[in-house]
Design a protein that fits this description.
12 helices; single chain; alpha/beta; globular
């Protein structure tokens, strides 16, 4: 069965609100003050960037209802911590004053957090922009329009692949929940599907993307599994798949496919200073405010939200110290593949331009 969108590509139903700019660093042009503040750190005229992060990753709980063998949060999940609702409320008070976007995700699975519905309602009351990364087992239709975007981590294109990757069989259930969200008549959020690629789950990937297109999914975000060399898929094969999609199928489909392989393989922050860490941070379910999540060799925790205000943590002495230290590229020797690297690449290279004062 075809989605009406794929049958009539020029109709209103076919319009896809997702464009690749959503994942492009150029979107920072919308935040000139923040960029200027980070550039001052890069240029040595400011010791740190005191402006709030553009968005934060909020872990409601470390508890999860799946067992993905390659879960990046395996260590955190052992804590089994959950954030108190009162802590979340006071965080949202602070974030609302600075228009911080909040990505609700792991530690574990955010939708199993016992106050999940209250968190969504609190965000609406504070007029906060929220996004959600979920494994999609719990139905979301009644909450969905409260989110700017929802990304469901599917990570498999068949029931057999699903149980191999995720340890528990929920394939049909998640597919059904995606179909429900994709068919919502008054849908006002971007619907994405996350797909971590391993050696086991790329055999029918192109067919799967077409199925997601038919289900009304706006975009699929594909990336090779990280920090699991034994499970990493062959990169040459992935480039071939990408090119096959782009040359034979992309133009007839509404769905957008994000497969930025180059961004997902570089380690050590490409030997660059880390300035862009100030764009974001991770608030873990135990209340720790971590600078980032891929600095496994030297994790940085700025403070704990259960006992301190976010403002005081973010503008504290430790952040100033660390910001200075990370200007040395050697400090990033050991960073795993990190989504912040692509921003650092721009920040550093723009500072080196010979023709800065010309257009
Ligand atoms: C840790 S999960 C937490 C949220 C939720 N439980 C879920 O699975 O969507 C956040 C995202 O990280 C992805 N992820 C987990 N481990 C990964 C790995 N080793 N490499 C790449 N992505 C990974 C998951 O597929 C998911 O999209
Ligand atoms: S569902 Fe998410 S948190 Fe749970 S094991 Fe899988 S990747 Fe980890
Ligand atoms: S490059 Fe390293 S220090 Fe910078 S955000 Fe990524 S993991 Fe953290």
């Amino acid at each position: 069965m075809k989605h009406p969108a794929s049958a009539t590509p020029t109709s209103e139903a076919a319009r896809n609100p997702f464009t690749l700019l959503e994942y492009d660093p150029i979107k920072l042009l919308n935040k000139p003050q923040k960029v200027a503040s980070m550039f001052e750190v890069r240029d040595g005229t400011r010791d740190y960037d005191p402006l709030f992060p553009l968005s934060v990753e909020l872990h409601l709980t470390d508890v999860c209802n799946l067992r993905c063998g390659w879960c990046t949060d395996l260590e955190l999940r052992r804590n089994l911590a959950s954030l108190p609702l009162a802590t979340i409320e006071s965080l949202f008070d602070e974030f609302a004053q600075h228009q911080v976007g909040v990505t609700i995700e792991g530690g574990g699975e955010p939708t199993v957090y016992k106050h999940f519905a209250e968190v969504v309602a609190l965000a609406a009351r504070h007029k906060l922009d929220i996004g959600l990364i979920t494994n999609g087992i719990r139905p979301l239709a009644s909450f969905a329009n409260q989110f700017k975007w929802i990304r469901i981590s599917m990570d498999a294109s068949s029931a057999e692949e699903y149980v191999a990757e995720k340890g528990v069989q929920r394939y049909e259930k998640v597919r059904a929940n995606i179909a429900t969200l994709g068919a919502l008549p008054d849908k006002r959020f971007l619907l994405g599907v996350g797909y971590v690629m391993t050696r086991r789950n790329t055999g029918r990937l192109l067919e799967f993307i077409e199925e997601m297109d038919a289900a009304g999914v706006d975009y699929i975000y594909l990336r090779p599994v990280e920090e699991m060399p034994d499970l990493s898929p062959d990169l040459a094969m992935l480039y071939e798949l990408k090119s096959l999609w782009e040359t034979t199928r992309a133009s007839q489909r509404r769905i957008k496919v994000l497969m930025n392989l180059d961004d997902r393989i570089q380690k050590d922050n490409e030997g660059l200073p880390c300035i862009a860490h100030a764009l974001s941070c991770v608030i873990q379910a135990d209340g720790n405010v971590a600078m980032c999540e891929k600095r496994r060799h030297d994790p940085v925790v700025f403070g704990n939200i259960n006992t301190q205000r976010f403002t005081d943590i973010w503008r504290g002495a430790l952040r100033k110290d660390v910001s200075r230290r990370l200007l040395d590229p050697c400090a990033q020797r050991g960073c795993e593949v990190c989504r912040i690297t692509k921003f650092n690449r721009y920040f550093v290279r723009l500072g080196e331009l010979y023709t800065r004062n010309f257009i």
